[in-house]
Each structure stands twice: as structure tokens, then as C-alpha cells.
Amino acid sequence: LYSLLADSYLKKGDKDKYIGTIQKGRVAYSNDKQLILSELNFFIEAGRYKEAITNLELAMGKEPNNEIYPFNIGVIYDNMANPGEGKTAPAEKEFNEFVDKAEASYKKALEVNPSYFDALYNIGALYFNKAVKQSEIVNNIKDNAKFKTESAKVDEIFKKSLKKKKKGEEIRTNDIGTYKNLISTLQKLYL
To answer: Which of 42, 106, 111, 36 is nearest to 73 (CA)?
Structure first.
């Protein structure tokens, strides 16, 4: 009933009553998967990422063998690290924390399902983006010895990306746009 009532509020465009009803339902039925997921979707759409992660962790506790939950936690942290064009990028320390948490979450999804294409694709992209960011920093180093050392570290991150992207290519996806992007990234990595 809580879900039905909440959906009727959502159809009317009343997001406050929608989330209020979902949250009342969560108090009454804390283990209801549909209510957890409805609340989760609301938090993600509203940019309330910490609350979304809490819900995903709760759902993951109920279904530890479902790779979707850790994958989505990884996506949230990945988006926090790389917010996209027109949005404020996090400071270096926060960026590194978000990347580490995204990586750990993607790895957890891959532990559950080693052939999970989306997790392979995303962790490869995460490594690629991290390497590009590190590469920009390294290119400003004037000391030759330090430049070589730091460049080698960047190369190792690119190699991690390549490994995951190659495995993703082996598994493949039916999404043509994603597959083309994968091939394009692989070409860049090989270069």
C-alpha cells in the first residue's frame, strides 16, 4: 500500500509526499525490497548520494550474491570522483578517496560475477580516467628522474585499465554504443 500510495504522489508530481510515504513505509516494513529500491532511486535522482549508498548497502546485506548493488555503489562513487562537464570536480584528496571506494565496489561486484560486463567496463574506465588525471600532473614535473618514476606509475594504471577492457571485449555487450566506446578506449590504450 505504501508503494501504491507513493507512486500516486509521484504521478501527481508531489515528490515531498512521495518520499515521505516511502520513508513511512520503510519504518513500518524495513526489510521490504521494493521500498528500499524506491527510496534508493529517489536519493540518486536527488543527488543525495550518501543516503543512496546506505540503501544499497542495506540491500546488499539482504542479497549478498547480487552484483548489482556493489556495482551501483561503485557507479555513485565514480560519478562523485568524475562529476562531468559543468560540475565542480572534487579536490585531489576527495577524488582519490572516491576512486578507491569505486574501485573496491566494482571489485566486489566482480567477485560475485567475474564476467559482469558493466563492472569490467566501468572499472577499466575508472583506471583510464585516473591515469589521464595522473598523466596531467606528471607532465608538469620538471625533474627528469621524478618524471620517469611517476610516468611508470601512470603506465601501470593504464595497464590495469587495458586488462579490464580486454576482458570486457572478450565478454562483449549487445549495446552497440558501449561496445564502440570500449573499442575506441582499447585503441587509445594500445597506442
So the answer is: 106
